[in-house]
Amino acid sequence: MLAINTVRRAPAILRSAAPLSTWSAIPAGPPDPILGKDWAFKADKDPRRINLGVGAYRDEDGKPYVLNAVKKAEEKIAAAKLDKEYLPITGLPGFTSNAAKLAYGADSVPRNKNAIAVTQSISGTGALRIGGAFLARHYPYSKTIYVPTPTWGNHIPLFKDSGLEVKYYRYFDKKTVGLDFEGLKEDLQNAPEGSIVLLHACAHNPTGVDPTQSQWKDISDIIAEKKLFPFFDMAYQGFASGSTDRDAFAVRYFVSQGHQIALSQSFAKNMGLYGERVGAFSLTTASEEERKRVDSQLKIIVRPMYSNPPLHGAHIANTILSDPELYQEWEGEVKGMADRIINMRERLYQLLSNDFRTPGEWSHVKSQIGMFSFTGLNKEQCKILAEKAHIYMTMDGRISMAGLNGRNIEYFAKSVDAAVKGDL
């Protein structure tokens, strides 16, 4: 009996020891450099506060914008009373077909040969992750991907987690606040044969600096000569210039020159479907038979990752892409968003260069393209703008031009002028 009582008391003795938690040794991770600014902005109650960190479009009143084409597409979807069944592993077939048509063009040779393997993804990030995993598993010539300096911050951990080694090629020239084209060419020419190269198809994030069409042709020649493999990230088609065709130039030119490419697409920016997580990953192949084999391996990657993609956003995008009237309205809205950003660039340039005569050369604000601008502001200037002027941006001086509007742009320019002059 005594032994039984001893056994029964043991749990109480163990409980009193208060063992350490299984997770007690896990260190706190650093805050996300972009989303962290969003949290700081939300905690700031100053009425003058401006959030230029997160890359999401805002209208002239600084509010999130739901496109009219999206609203009409949702009305059509609701009226159709669709079910909520699982999608296939590679997504909604109509959407993936239309996404490929949007990117590669209606007259694309591999598309018309049924030789493009495409899968719906969880926005652009998911597309990149699928692509990284596929290349790490199946690309036979290299497990190294070269990314531009700088690049979107998530590219680096994303590709590393996919199993690829990440290296860099020169891209941005801090002295000119423009493209370091000679450095870019030299680094690609020196990359080992067969290496993977990440290319921003348009509206380079974070710099807003894109190669010209002539420069893209030179890049294509180098990649062909060195037998490099181009992986395009196209997160802003239509959002850069206002034309979906113009923004797809690099992708379509490379394919026309015989390159086999990988492509990541996002519909977050150009359709405003941020939270719907709509994207696509595709690969051009040599034939329909080869495409089927690649498709089968994409399914093997996707199935244990998330099984199959979300339904609603894909229906929205597909409804717009497959309805001629909605498509035309959507293209007009995309151009309207792009034009508003271009107008903000022009206005900011005028304020800094002419009205306030801010020290420095500011023409890069106009020449850069897309949602983001690399202002050239240094870390200390960015820090003081947050602390004294309640203006939030990443510490490398990148701003989202979509966060500026007619109500706040003069305050922003005046604050930048003061920070540059040391008067803030």
Descriptive notes:
- This protein is 48% helix and 13% strand.
- The chain contains 17 helices and 13 strands.
- Helix 7 links the parallel strand 3 and strand 4.
- The N terminus is likely disordered.
For the termini, the CA-CA separation is: 80 Å
Flag low-confidence runs: 1-7
Strand content: 5-15%
Task: Work out the radius of gyration.
Answer: 24 Å
The dominant shape is globular
Q: Spell the H/E element sequence.
A: HHEHHHEHEHEEEHEHEHHEEHHHHEHEEH
Overall mean pLDDT stands at: 93
Secondary structure blueprint with pairings:
Blueprint: H1 2-16, H2 35-43, E1 50-51, H3 68-80, H4 93-104, H5 109-112, E2 116-122, H6 123-138, E3 144-149, H7 155-162, E4 165-170, E5 172-173, E6 178-179, H8 181-190, E7 196-200, H9 213-225, E8 229-234, H10 244-247, H11 249-256, E9 262-266, E10 278-284, H12 288-306, H13 312-322, H14 324-355, H15 364-367, E11 372-374, H16 379-389, E12 391-392, E13 398-400, H17 409-421
